[in-house]
Specification:
Strand content: under 5%
Number of strands: 0
Radius of gyration: 22 Å
Order of helices and strands: HH
């Protein structure tokens, strides 16, 4: 499955924005707050993964070719 360069760029920019947001929120965490750290990382990973999956699946749906009409070897439809 191929994705367009424009689509790839948009996905990477979206992921980068979420990671930067995660890094900014990590500065507010107290030292040793591993549960909160884990929760924030998992939320970010699932959000990025979900949005990527949504984009990829919607692109596949749009690119799916409509099946053509069947034609026999003599050129006549069955």
């Amino acid at each position: 499955m191929e994705t367009s360069e424009k689509g790839k760029t948009a996905l990477w920019q979206q992921a980068e924005a979420r990671v930067l947001k995660l890094l900014a929120s990590l500065q507010e965490l107290k030292e040793g707050a591993l549960k909160e750290l884990e929760q924030q990382v998992m939320e970010t990973v699932f959000a990025v993964g979900g949005s990527w999956m949504e984009c990829i699946l919607s692109d596949v749906h749009l690119e799916t070719a409509v099946p053509g009409q069947r034609v026999g070897s003599c050129g006549i439809p069955p």
